[in-house]
Write a structure and sequence with these properties.
Chain A is mostly beta strands and about 110 residues long. Chain A is about 0% helix and about 55% strand. Chain A has no helices and 11 strands. In chain A, strands 2, 4, 5, 6, 9, 10 and 11 form a 7-stranded mixed beta sheet that branches. In chain A, strands 1-3-8-7 form a 4-stranded antiparallel beta sheet, with no helix packed on it. Chain B has about 110 residues and is an all-beta fold. Helices cover about 0% and strands about 50% of the residues of chain B. Chain B is globular, with a radius of gyration of 13 Å. The interface between A and B is medium-sized, with 20 and 20 residues.
Chain lengths: ~110, ~110
């Protein structure tokens, strides 16, 4: 398996623009997680899905952020409109379960909002 | 609720000397515990995992960790540091039917 795939790897955009990050989880994994990592706040869980259904989005910072999982092999995280404070590395991870199961991380998308 | 505390934000060792990264956990249930490593500009990778079997867990690249319930600790060790071990290390605890809870990370520097 190719592992978790994220695109793009780098994104530079201007404040106010819409940004869409993409993730393809490992085949057969029922759980998908979106994280944000910054120097100031560390690694934060934004939202996670089970069988394509959002289970907990309490980590989504505000209404500008939205995530979807239209099928088992694809998820998006959208920021609209983007702001400079959204600059971070965004990771997608997938897992066959929650509690005792390892999460497999993608390489991340480095977002810079000017 | 579950939580982890990584006691050092930064650890610096000389190449060839032992590594000790400290982690304490809190959990209402019998926890599963993990250590992940993140090399610069990379995603997180599992180093090792404890799930109530042997209390001494061996991982990749010569790392190991010991689960001590009486001390609620899960410290990560390696007998001899290598330059390639320089990275960020995360201690992680499982919840009960909830996602993993990550510590704030410990940055390991290895000096030649």
């Amino acid at each position: 398996d190719a592992g978790v795939i994220q695109s793009p790897r780098h994104e530079v955009t201007e404040m106010g623009q819409e940004v869409t990050l993409r993730c393809k989880p490992i085949s057969g994994h029922d759980y998908l997680f979106w994280y944000r990592q910054t120097m100031m706040r560390g690694l934060e869980l934004l939202i996670y899905f089970n069988n394509n259904v959002p289970i907990d989005d309490s980590g989504m910072p505000e209404d500008r952020f939205s995530a979807k999982m239209p099928n088992a092999s694809f998820s998006t995280l959208k920021i609209q409109p983007s702001e400079p404070r959204d600059s971070a590395v965004y990771f997608c991870a997938s897992s066959p379960g929650t509690s005792a199961n390892e999460q497999f991380f993608g390489p991340g998308t480095r977002l810079t909002v000017l | 609720a579950q939580s982890v505390t990584q006691l050092d934000s930064h650890v610096s060792v000389s190449e060839g000397t032992p590594v000790l990264l400290r982690c304490n956990y809190s959990s209402s249930y019998s926890p599963s515990l993990f250590w992940y490593v993140q090399h610069p500009n990379k995603g997180l990778q599992l180093l090792l995992k404890y799930t109530s079997a042997a209390t001494l867990v061996k991982g990749i690249n010569g790392f190991e960790a010991e689960f001590k319930k009486s001390e609620t600790s899960f410290h990560l060790t390696k007998p001899s540091a290598h330059m390639s071990d320089a990275a960020e290390y995360f201690c992680v605890v499982s919840g009960y039917n909830t996602p993993l809870v990550f510590g704030k990370g410990t940055r390991l520097s290895v000096i030649a």
